[in-house]
Structure formats: C-alpha cells, structure tokens
Amino acid sequence: MASVSDIGIDLGTSNVVIYARNRGIVLDEPAVVAIERDTRVIRAIGTEAHDMIGRTPSGIMAIRPLREGSVADFELTSSMLHHFVVQVIGKRMFSRPRAVLSLPSGINENEKRNISAVMFEAGVRRTQLLDRPVAAAIGADLNINEVYGTMVVDIGAGMTDIAVLSDGRVVVSDAVKLGGDHFDDAIIRYLRRKYNLLVGEMTAEELKTTIGSAMPQREQMYLDVTGRNLISGLPKLMRITSDEIFEAIDDPLTGLIEAIHGVLEHTPAELAADVFDTGITLTGGGARLTGLADALTTALKVKSRVAENPRVCVAVGCGRTLENLADYARYLNDRR
Question: Is 307 within 8 Å of 140 (Cβ atoms)?
C-alpha cells in the first residue's frame, strides 16, 4: 500500500509544485536558483532565490535552470529538485515513497532518465512519469476515461501544451514555445520601444497580472511603475494603462490562438465535434491572464473556461493518480 508520503510533482519552468498523497499541495516555490558566478556555489533556492532576481551584486546570479520547457542547466535543475523533494519527504533510508512526476515537454529522454536518478538519490524508491496534458486534465476534474474528445491547453511560463484527449490518451497535440514569459517579454519590449523605459521581468509580470487583459477593458486601469530611462540613464516613474498592456501582448496572444487553432484543424471530425460540445479547458499559470478564456471563445468560436486553481492542476493531477491508481495507473510511464 502507498504511504502518505507518496508525492506528485510538477517540475515547471517557473515553479515547482508538490502534492503529497492524501494531504494536498505541500510545496509551491519558484524554480529559481541563486549561485555565485565564479564558483557556482548555490546561495539560495526557491522563494529566497526568486526575491534576488534583478537585485543581486555582480558576483551572484539568480537564474531559472529550466527555460522554454527544457533544461537549460541540468546540474542546477538536479540540485533544485533534490532540495525540494528532501524538504517534503525528509531524509529516508528505509521507507522510501513513490513519486509521479510531470515534466516540461521539451525535456529529452536522457534528461528524463537522469532526473529519475536524482529522485532516487533524494529518497524516492520509484518514479513514474505522467504526460503533462493528462496530468492537467486529471487535476482540472475532467473525465478522461471515456472515449470522448476533451481539449486541454496548459499554459506554462516557457511553453504551452495543447492536446485533445480521448480514452485518457493524447490523440492530437502540439507543444509551442510560447507562455507567460513571452507575454512578459512583449511588455518589456513595448515599454522600451514606446517610452525608452527599461523595466525588469518582475515589473513586467506585475503589469501583466495587475492590469493586463486579453480583452479590451471597459474601465481603464493603470499602474505606476519605476524603470530606467534609457536616454538619461536615471530612474523614471511612469503610469502605464491597461490599454497599453493589451496592445503590448497582442503578438504572443495571436500566436497562442493560432497554435490552438492548428491543433483543432488536425483533430479528427468526431473528436472535434466533442470539443465544440464540451469546450476548451485552460490550465497552468498563464491561464490566469484576465479575459483569456473570453478571447479564445471569441476567436475560435469554441467556449473556453479556466480550470479552478489552474496553476496547480498538473501537480494535483499527479497526486490524484497516486490516490486512484486503479483508474489512472495505465497512463503512467515507469522510470525505476
């Protein structure tokens, strides 16, 4: 019988979320590592490292070891994952838990094997992988066991997974390097081009989450932000409006809509009819962009909805798989 310490893990580009069997979410921290530039000695991991972004002295870097759905630095990714797993399960010599892990789509087979080895070193006796769209669907309370078309769009920081599922299997899918980071980058470029104002990643994300919207706002909203004037080199305070953020994110939003449309075009007719009937479910942190579901509904003529707590759907799906192995075991890929 599985122990209470069995865990489901979403190793995301921007966050690592861990779900403990029968306990729910027990860890939710940024996927950020702060290291000394010359020696690569780790100074901080997770929230503490995230708070250093844009504020570190020249000798320290706060970086994300996963970028655009793939591993940018495997050594740091391994150290980060090991740190979080040990933090949740403790150091175990005999009673080792089991783990269900969902990885970004861009991770290759060799990296998957190495990550499983890292899990074993951290105290996990057996690691099984769960496809990201399947995990997201389970975490979003979708019934994936029926032979019926279901569409899930999981919008991460660096990549979006788009899939049509039937009988718990991915029938048609696409993974595009487009996510929340690209919306932030679009805002940074817009402000630089329009106002010669340079803002950091955290400021761009604050603008996106606070006043950003995928649909025009009825009431104009604004946020005062501080950046660096590229002409004078001095700090500058500027008021940014919601209309400007809507304009700034147009390109990545259009790209996302086109990618979803492309998957629908390649979906078999019967399953496409099911999707038109049941709609599109949005998961992932990027799904929280205001008005995104309405924008997709308007552009694609298919009703769309954002799952409850979309940012943790993948981790919840991994955890629920452990809690209901009789229903979901056939979807797991074993990594002993």
Answer: yes
Q: What is the mean pLDDT of residues 125-144?
A: 94
Structural domains of the chain, with CATH: 7-131+314-335 (3.30.420.40), 134-178+253-313 (3.30.420.40), 180-250 (3.90.640.10)
d(CA 183, CA 245): 10
Please write the tens of the pLDDT for every residue from 105-129: 878 888 888 898 999 988 898 999 9
pLDDT digits (tens, 9 = 90+) for 43-65: 999 999 999 887 878 889 999 99
CA distance 137 to 140: 5
Q: Which residues have C-beta within 8 Å of that of residue 34, sequence separation ≥ 6?
A: 42, 43, 44, 45, 48, 49, 52, 56, 60, 61, 62, 63
- The tally of CA atoms less than 13 A away on the side-chain side of residue 19 is 25
The predicted model gives 282-298 an average pLDDT of 97
Contact 204, 182 (CB under 8 A): no
Instruction: Provide the 10 A C-beta neighbour count for residue 305.
Output: 16
d(CA 20, CA 243) in angstroms, rounded, equals 42
